[in-house]
Design a protein that fits this description.
alpha+beta; 12 helices
C-alpha cells in the first residue's frame, strides 16, 4: 500500500491509502492508489466498472475518472453536520479568552488565561483555523470558520468604525460535496508595482461552509459570527460604512438586520456583464447599444437625485418604444432597494458598487 495526497477545495492536502488508478481531483491529476473494486464499493451511485480489475480498459477508467471529477468525490466525504462539528472540535475558539488586541502573529497566546486552552491554541497556530461555535438558531446546516490572521484584521477594522466596506458572496465551485463556501470580508486599496496602477484586493474575515448557501439563515449566521469574534476579542461589534453583494435578497436583508441603516450597493460589473450577454433583453434589439450607454450613465451618477432624474428620463423613453423590452431589467435593478449601483450614492471611503475584488479572490482559489 502506498500513500498519496488528494487536494480538497480548501487547499489542504489529505493523506489516504488505496490500490491504483488515475483520477483528476480539484483541477490536477493525481495517482489515487485504489483498486477498482474499492472505488466501486465507495461510490455505488456511479456507473459500474468491470468486476475484475485485471480486465479494466482505458475507456471505462477514463469515464470513471470523469464521473468522479463531476461528483467531486474524494473517497471520504463529510456528509452530516454532526460529523463536521466533531472534526472541528480541536479548532474551536478557546473558552477562557480575555478581551485584548492582537499586536502581531505571535501574540495570540496572550489572549489565553493561565488555565485555558494550551492544546487548542497549539492546534489553532499550527492549522491556522478557528471554529466559531454558535447556537443552532439559524435553521442552517453549516459552520463558521476564521483564523489567527483574520482575527488581527478584524481587530484593525474594530478601530475603523464606518470607514470600511463589507462584501459577501457564495461560490458553488468552491464546495466539498454538498458543502458550499460563503465568504464575508472587506477590501483594501494597494499599489500594483508591476502594472503601475492602483488595485483592490479582497480581505476575507469569516468563512461559512453550509448546505443552505445564500439563504437568510446562512447570511445571518456568518454576519453574527463576524460580530461574535469581534466582541469576544475586542469587546465591540464591527460598524461597516457600507455593504456590497450581488442580487440576493437574503444577503441584503441580513445586512439590514445585522447593521441597520448600512449603505448597501449591488455589483455594477455584474449588471453590465449580464446585460451585455443579453440576459435582460435581446442583443439584436434595435435599441440595445443605446440602452447599454444609458445604463453606464446611471452608474456614473454623482448623487441620488441625478440617478433618479436619469432613470425617470430613460424609463419614459423605454416606455415610448412600446416593446416592453426593458421590463425585466426594470423589475430587477430599478425598483426601490436594488437601484443602488451608482457610484455617487455612498459616503464611505473606497465604497463603490462592485464585487470584483471578491470574485477575483475566488478565482485565485480555484486556480
Amino acid at each position: 500500500m502506498k500513500s498519496v495526497r488528494i487536494r480538497d477545495v480548501s487547499g489542504v492536502y489529505q493523506k489516504t491509502q488505496r490500490g491504483s488508478s488515475l483520477i483528476r481531483v480539484s483541477g490536477m491529476y493525481q495517482l489515487a492508489f485504489a483498486s477498482i473494486s474499492d472505488v466501486s464499493a465507495a461510490s455505488p451511485h456511479l456507473p459500474p466498472l468491470p468486476a475484475h480489475p485485471d480486465v479494466v480498459k482505458l475507456g471505462p477508467l477514463q469515464r470513471r475518472a470523469k464521473h468522479l471529477k463531476k461528483q467531486k468525490v474524494v473517497q471520504v466525504q463529510v456528509e452530516s453536520l454532526l460529523e463536521l462539528k466533531q472534526f472541528l472540535l480541536n479548532y474551536r475558539m478557546p473558552e477562557s479568552i480575555s478581551i485584548a488586541t492582537l499586536q502581531g502573529p505571535s501574540t495570540l497566546s496572550a489572549l489565553l488565561d493561565d488555565d485555558g486552552g494550551a492544546a487548542v491554541l497549539t492546534e489553532i497556530q499550527k492549522k491556522g483555523l478557528v471554529y466559531v461555535m454558535q447556537m443552532d438558531a439559524y435553521d442552517v446546516e453549516g459552520v463558521c470558520l476564521t483564523g489567527p490572521q483574520q482575527i488581527q484584521w478584524i481587530g484593525q477594522l474594530a478601530k475603523l468604525a464606518f470607514r470600511f466596506v463589507l462584501h459577501i458572496d457564495s461560490k458553488w465551485k468552491l464546495h466539498h460535496g454538498v458543502w458550499v463556501l460563503t465568504s464575508l470580508g472587506t477590501h483594501m486599496l494597494k499599489w500594483d508595482q508591476h502594472n503601475q496602477t492602483l488595485s483592490t484586493t479582497f480581505v476575507p474575515l469569516i468563512y461559512l461552509v453550509c448546505k443552505q448557501h445564500e439563504s437568510t439563515g446562512a447570511a445571518l449566521m456568518v454576519m453574527d459570527a463576524l460580530n461574535a469574534v469581534s466582541e469576544k476579542y475586542f469587546g465591540v461589534k464591527l460598524e461597516p460604512g457600507g455593504a456590497c453583494a450581488d442580487h440576493c435578497d437574503a444577503f441584503r436583508n441580513a445586512y439590514e438586520t445585522t447593521w441597520p441603516g448600512v449603505a448597501f450597493g449591488t455589483c455594477w460589473p455584474h449588471i453590465a456583464r449580464k446585460f451585455s450577454e443579453g440576459e435582460y433583453t435581446k442583443k439584436t434589439w434595435a435599441h440595445f447599444d443605446e440602452v447599454k450607454a444609458q445604463l453606464q450613465n446611471i452608474h456614473l451618477a454623482h448623487s441620488a437625485e441625478m440617478r433618479d432624474a436619469l432613470i425617470a428620463e430613460y424609463s419614459t423613453m423605454w416606455d415610448t418604444w412600446g416593446d416592453k423590452a426593458m421590463n425585466k431589467f426594470w423589475d430587477t435593478y430599478c425598483i426601490n432597494g436594488w437601484d443602488c449601483w451608482s457610484i455617487g450614492l455612498f459616503d464611505c471611503m473606497l465604497m463603490t458598487p462592485s464585487q470584483q475584488a471578491q470574485e477575483s479572490w475566488h478565482k485565485q482559489i480555484l486556480r
